[in-house]
Design brief:
CATH superfamily: Bacterial extracellular solute-binding protein, family 7
Oligomer: single chain
Largest sheet: 9 strands, mixed
Number of strands: 9
Number of helices: 14
Shape: globular
Number of domains: 1
CATH architecture: 3-Layer(aba) Sandwich
Strand content: 15-25%
CATH class: Alpha Beta
């Protein structure tokens, strides 16, 4: 985004804030309204208005309608938008690569294990690493656990060899695919369906709800339930803006965020469960449920990724997460 456009937005936002006693929070995100993140954002807006008795109005801008994906973080840091909920891999370009630890394969066995981290001391420590960049972390929102799709069955590590898999930009995910002999292809989410349809890539990984909503079952013959990785978001706010709010307002917004997080995370689980049922009912994709031994073999094959990526995500961060999981 050009600086002049950002400056104009800042000046306009400042004029609007001056003209009204009501505090405006612009909450921008890149997904549709009818998604776990979209629903949680709307829930937060409603609770914020309720708990602050109308003193705060949260304006939610879904589908990148306010800023494009690559522009959001710059806009937040400059104060043109106050709140975002980006995927955790988005913090690497800011120099905070620790969040990429959550991309490590088979790091979490259950949702309870995941929440030990995201809702515990380790999660708070990760959020604190954002503050030197002018960002305050408020909460982690779940999308769910990822599984693999392909046009051939994926049951063992050898089944991945030589196949091209779409991934989002992440050095950790790149190494994950390479660890089983696959060929990682970084590609925009919006381009994935066509790439699968035309054979540009052979498969992909994502949460079940994303797989279903993007209609991958139309162009992929097999879905292997691996639950091998996590997709989540960090709800973040411009730190200067946040610190400038009154303590009472901050407290009310924190409560609204807690309630929105519980709601959003429950919606994520429900939608993944429903999507899996819908995929099975469609009859277009064969769903493969791995045996305990098959899942363990895949986990073992990808275990090298943890050691190779330790320096990138931070050995201290990785230890902190593993210690948290052990409790």
């Amino acid at each position: 985004m050009k600086f002049s456009k950002l400056l104009a937005t800042l000046l306009l936002g400042g004029a609007c804030a001056w003209a009204s006693a009501q505090t405006i929070i612009k909450f921008s995100h890149v997904v549709a309204v009818d998604t776990p993140k979209g629903k949680a954002a709307d829930f937060f807006a409603k609770k914020a208005a309720e708990l602050t008795q109308g003193k705060v109005k949260v304006e939610v801008y879904p589908n990148s309608s306010l800023y494009k994906d690559k522009e959001e973080m710059e806009a937040l840091q400059m104060g043109a938008v106050q709140m975002l909920a980006p995927s955790l891999s988005k913090f690497g370009p800011l120099g905070v690569k620790d969040f990429e630890a959550t991309d490590l394969p088979f790091l979490f066995d259950t949702t309870a294990d995941l929440h030990k981290i995201t809702q515990g001391p380790a999660g708070a420590s990760l959020m604190a690493k954002l503050e030197p960049t002018g960002i305050k972390g408020l909460a982690f929102w779940d999308n769910g656990f990822k599984s693999f799709t392909a046009n051939t069955p994926l049951r063992k590590p050898a089944d991945f060899k030589g196949k091209k898999f779409r991934i989002q930009s992440s050095k950790v995910l790149d190494e994950q695919i390479r660890s089983v002999g696959g060929l990682p292809q970084v590609m925009a989410f919006s381009e994935t369906y066509q790439a699968l349809q035309t054979g540009v890539v052979d498969g992909t990984e994502n949460t079940i709800s994303n797989i279903y909503s993007q209609k991958y079952q139309e162009v992929q013959k097999y879905l292997t339930l691996t639950n091998h990785g996590y997709i989540g978001y960090a709800v973040i706010v411009n730190k200067k803006f946040w610190d400038g709010l009154g303590a009472d307002i901050r407290g009310q917004l924190e409560q609204a965020m807690k309630e929105a997080t519980v709601y959003g995370n429950s919606i994520a689980k429900q939608e993944n469960d429903q999507a899996l049922d819908d995929i099975k009912k469609s009859g277009r994709t064969t769903v493969i449920e791995l045996t305990k031994d098959e899942r363990q073999a895949l986990k073992q094959a990808m275990s090298s990724v943890h050691a190779k990526m330790a320096d990138r995500v931070g050995k201290d961060t990785l230890k902190m997460i593993n210690d948290g999981l052990a409790k």
